[in-house]
């Protein structure tokens, strides 16, 4: 079912959508025909192995869902699947005009929407948990989720993805004025899953929005996490944690569109890679428009390569149209274990296995604490430990590097 012209006009008028001029974000359109199928030569697709997407980026049929969905319903919160006119009115509620073929298809063809509606002034004490579990990877499917938070509300939503699935997904978030909202998206799929997902948030005046993208599982996961502002004073914190094993492709793309004055964005993503063919991609982009005076923004990506045979691509970008800003910057690093740190720990009686565990936990722990959801933080610590045990804690591989450092240190002491 297509989005009606009346619905599009209503959404655009209400949110005063301004066309994005960023070179990393092509002009949007609700019409599927306006988006040719990507070839892989486009800037926004050059890192993604299209053949592994099983046609989601093009014209794979969106079949009846093989993914179950369940949730808790805290008092005062409305959570239900809606369709018909109500579902159509929610297409583009975040102000997003699709700039990909698959995104336009999701909004045009998916007939129902899962709506999580938190009323104004509500303070939801417990996290709202939505659990999606895929049961058939051969079924190509699509879903649309809307998270709507009223003025001055406070809530946490956790989207959990498990099992085997081939899914295209659009998640739209509308954060009301003065609201304080956290959205956590956990991709803990089985090894055969493919997940193509776009998260778009519209942050209201003086509102606070935190988005955490956590990716461990899946054969291929590509997530866009975008944010724009409906008024001055809004702030967004975009966090990410990922761990890629042999053969996995994990891709995160961030876009903070500062289209209102005195807004803030802070991006921190950290990832680790291990195993032959593990590939991670992080592309961060901040667009500061002419009207966005007095903004503050910073984006940071850190990657830790644990074994040979991995590849980490990290591309930070800043596009600035006004010099009247408080501050803007970015940082990106990709490195291996610090052998001297390991040697320092070993020289004080810490085993090689424990030394590597301590270094990697130290790498992730500050970010895990920022998520702000205790149950998720505990789970992440456990999952990182499980990932470590797969490869990085092998003593026979690790001892070689440390012995080489010890030899260099001994030689330096003799020379001195």
SSE layout:
Elements: H1 5-15, E1 67-71, E2 78-82, H2 84-89, H3 101-109, E3 113-118, E4 128-149, E5 154-175, E6 180-187, E7 194-203, E8 208-215, E9 220-229, E10 235-244, E11 249-258, E12 264-273, E13 279-288, E14 296-305, E15 311-320, E16 327-336, H4 339-346, H5 352-370, H6 374-390, H7 395-415
Parallel strand pairs: 3-4, 4-5, 5-6, 5-7, 6-8, 7-9, 8-10, 9-11, 10-12, 11-13, 12-14, 13-15, 14-16
Antiparallel strand pairs: 1-4, 2-3
Describe this entry's structure for a reader.
Belongs to the iron-sulfur cluster assembly SufBD family. This is Fe-S cluster assembly protein SufD. It holds the Pfam family SUFBD_core. With 416 residues, the protein is α/β, with parallel strands linked by helices. The protein folds into two domains: 332 residues, no CATH class; 79 residues, no CATH class. Helix content is 22%, strand content 40%. The radius of gyration is 22 Å and the shape is globular. The chain starts with a helix and ends with a helix.
């Amino acid at each position: 079912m297509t989005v009606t012209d009346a619905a599009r006009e209503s959404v655009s008028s209400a949110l005063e959508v301004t066309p994005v001029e960023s070179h990393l974000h092509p002009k949007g359109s609700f019409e599927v025909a306006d988006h040719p199928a990507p070839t892989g030569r486009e800037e926004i697709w050059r890192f993604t192995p299209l053949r592994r997407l099983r046609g989601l980026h093009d014209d794979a049929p969106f079949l009846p869902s093989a993914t179950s969905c369940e949730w808790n319903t805290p008092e005062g919160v409305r959570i239900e699947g809606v369709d018909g006119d109500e579902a159509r009115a929610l297409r583009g509620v975040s102000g997003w005009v699709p700039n990909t073929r698959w995104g336009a298809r999701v909004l045009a063809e998916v007939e129902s929407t899962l709506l999580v509606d938190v009323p104004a002034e509500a303070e939801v004490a417990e996290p709202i948990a939505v659990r999606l579990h895929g049961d058939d990877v051969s079924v190509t499917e699509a879903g649309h989720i809307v998270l709507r938070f009223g003025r001055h509300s406070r809530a946490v939503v956790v989207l959990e993805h498990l099992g085997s699935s081939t899914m295209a997904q659009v998640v739209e978030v509308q954060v009301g004025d003065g609201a304080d909202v956290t959205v956590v998206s956990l991709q803990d799929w089985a090894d055969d899953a493919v997940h193509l997902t776009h998260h778009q948030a519209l942050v209201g005046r003086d509102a606070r929005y935190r988005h955490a993208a956590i990716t461990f599982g899946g054969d291929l996961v590509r997530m866009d996490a975008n944010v724009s502002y409906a008024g001055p004073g809004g702030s967004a914190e975009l966090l990410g944690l990922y761990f890629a094993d042999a053969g996995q492709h994990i891709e995160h793309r961030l876009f903070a569109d500062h289209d209102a004055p005195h807004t803030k964005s802070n991006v921190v993503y950290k990832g680790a890679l291990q195993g032959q063919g593990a590939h991670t991609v992080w592309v961060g982009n901040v667009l500061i428009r002419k009207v966005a005076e007095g903004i503050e923004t910073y984006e940071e990506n850190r990657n830790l390569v644990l074994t040979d045979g991995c590849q980490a691509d990290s591309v930070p970008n800043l596009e600035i149209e006004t010099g009247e800003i408080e501050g803007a910057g970015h940082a990106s690093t990709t490195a291996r274990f610090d052998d001297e740190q390991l040697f320092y720990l070993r020289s004080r009686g810490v085993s090689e296995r424990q030394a590597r565990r301590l270094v990697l936990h130290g790498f992730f722990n500050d970010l895990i604490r920022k998520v702000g959801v205790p149950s998720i933080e505990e789970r992440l610590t456990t999952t990182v430990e499980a990932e470590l045990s797969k490869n990085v804690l092998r003593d026979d591989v690790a001892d070689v590097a440390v012995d080489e450092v010890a030899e260099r240190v001994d030689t330096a002491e003799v020379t001195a």
